[in-house]
Amino acid sequence: MSGPATEAFALDDTDRKLLRALAEDATQSSGALGRRFGLSQPATWRRIKRMEQAGVLAGRRLDLDLKRLGFGVTVFLGIRLATKGRASLEEFERAVSAIPEVQTIEHILGVYDYRLRVAARDLPDFERVLRRRVMTLPGVGSVDANVMLSEERLPGPL
Amino acid sequence: MLDDADRRILRQYQADPAASSAQLAERAGLTPATCWRRLERMQAQGIIRGVRGVIDWRALGYTVEVSLRITLDKSAPRAFDDFAAGARKIPEVLEIQTFLGQVDARLGIIARDVEHYQEIYREKILTLPHITDIDALMHVARVKFDEQVPL
């Protein structure tokens, strides 16, 4: 997900259908997908392989019901660094990557430098993560928190 | 409701969502039959919701990714619902989240380039109902994106 964008991969309608189906459920076999979209198993397999090799299909993600696993609270943190040399970015990224409760880290431009997604058991647990782990990160200036109430993920322009 | 063996399976599965049930059994130190039964149970209970394919939109030519943080006019009784219904119709919107905090909602959107982003922003985002304020965060890089949790 880094580096300059090279030649964009061109999808046809069948690729789009396959991609959409795999984004929903990546465990489907090429045989089952082929039957669904009127393709042979080898043709389906080749299309999926091609999208994997081009990096379009970048991997898989296990979708867990976090509430059922005891993670009742998701908080987005906007972090501004106090100092912004290259060394301080790298040091911050290394340290923040080691916090187990931090699910995603994005380097951004705007009112913040980093955006973190944090999963916590409840608000007191979130407060513990914030005070002991986040506020003590090297170079942290200000931190803004927004507690997530709902989330929807959409398939995107396919 | 989850015991140590379940957690071991989920830890291995999170780390490698392409692993087979037999591979997970071996890594979690369980027999294949036990592991398979537990996976089935956690799926039936809705703890495991599925395995999703991850699309790299950059590889498809979407080079711009922006978080729009939006404040809504809460005096309108259906502000959230109307706003979300409109946002759902924009193909370039990948995520809609609502919050308790300074920001009411966030849209994660992608665009082919800055010009395309401008077009989406002016024609599709600014026309959404009940917006009182928007600020934009441009994504530079993803440092971590696997969404794993400590189990």
Please count the helical segments of chain A: 5
The assigned CATH architecture of the largest domain in chain A is 2-Layer Sandwich
| SSE arrangement of chain B, N to C | HHHEEHEEHE
The tally of helices of chain B reads 5
Helix-strand category of chain A: alpha+beta
Write down the overall mean pLDDT of chain A: 92
Structural class of chain B: alpha+beta
Low-confidence stretches of chain B: none
GO cellular component, one term (chain A): cytosol
GO molecular function (chain A): sequence-specific DNA binding
InterPro entries (chain A): ArsR-like_HTH, AsnC-type_HTH_dom, Dimeric_a/b-barrel, Tscrpt_reg_AsnC-like, Tscrpt_reg_AsnC/Lrp_C, Tscrpt_reg_HTH_AsnC-type_CS, WH-like_DNA-bd_sf, WH_DNA-bd_sf
Pfam families (chain A): AsnC_trans_reg, HTH_AsnC-type
List key phrases describing it.
heterodimer; A: 158 residues; alpha+beta; Alpha-Beta Plaits; B: 151 residues; Arc Repressor Mutant, subunit A; 5 helices; elongated
Structure description:
The complex is a heterodimer of chains A (158) and B (151). Chain A has two domains: 13-53, Winged helix-like DNA-binding domain superfamily/Winged helix DNA-binding domain (Arc Repressor Mutant, subunit A, Orthogonal Bundle); 73-147, Alpha-Beta Plaits, CATH 3.30.70. Chain A is built from five helices and five strands; from the N terminus they run αααββαββαβ. Chain A has helices spanning 13-24, 30-37, 41-53, 86-97, 123-134; strands spanning 57-64, 73-81, 102-109, 114-120, 140-153. Chain A has a four-stranded antiparallel β-sheet. In chain A, β3 (102-109) and β4 form a beta hairpin. In chain A, α2 crosses α3 (41-53). Mean pLDDT of chain A is 92; it is low at 1-5. Chain B has 151 residues and is an alpha+beta fold. Chain B has two domains: 4-44, Winged helix-like DNA-binding domain superfamily/Winged helix DNA-binding domain (Arc Repressor Mutant, subunit A), CATH 1.10.10.10; 57-138, Alpha-Beta Plaits (2-Layer Sandwich). Chain B has five helices and five strands. Chain B has a four-stranded antiparallel β-sheet. In chain B, a hairpin with a 4-residue loop joins β3 (93-100) and β4. The longest helix of chain B has 13 residues, at 32-44. The model of chain B has no long low-confidence stretch (mean pLDDT 95).
